[in-house]
Amino acid sequence: FCNSPANPILLCWVIDVSLEDGVVRLVETKRMPASTSWLSYCWGKTQIITTTKSTLAAYLEPIPIDVFLNTFRDAVLFTRRLGIWYIWIDPLCIIQDSRRDWDTESTKMSGIYSNACLTIAATHSHDGHGGLFRPAPDIHLTGSTPPGEEYMLFFRKRIDHHHGAILTARETGHATIDHYTLLARSWVYQERMLSTQVLHFGYHELW
């Protein structure tokens, strides 16, 4: 499924998800070629784990994924299930209090999107707690036919397919923007335009 350039050159730091279950670690890539996924999400107001000069050494060792918020943890596990061994998540893969790292890596941001094998978009999540997945319980009805044969019907609510645009409640009859928080962020536009493939984890479905 990966249509990105063959063996794209990675940025300086990526998260290695190929370790045993339950841990990951930050690795310096030495600009080696490898396939990677990339996470697009909303920071929100929640404190997010970040790489700084003081935490860098610790993050080069195995990190329990339990310390990650739901969105990061889901993205790591999903990437691993796809057989991709690296993921790029901005607060971890840029040293946040290093002007030198910001100056170096920010100039290559377009390459992150265009060279990533897959951009994982946490489209419905308001912040790092939202995760990629939402429970979608089935609704079921039971009864019996006139001859007395029992039956059980399973169904789900009508799915809102307005995932291509941010629409107002007046236009759609419901607040679509609440379902697709990520698409309301202007800086996400470049991610969507430059990425070769984007998988949106929406309020009701994937697309």
From TrEMBL:
Residues 39-191 form the Heterokaryon incompatibility domain. It holds the Pfam family HET. InterPro entries: HET (IPR010730). This is Heterokaryon incompatibility protein-domain-containing protein.
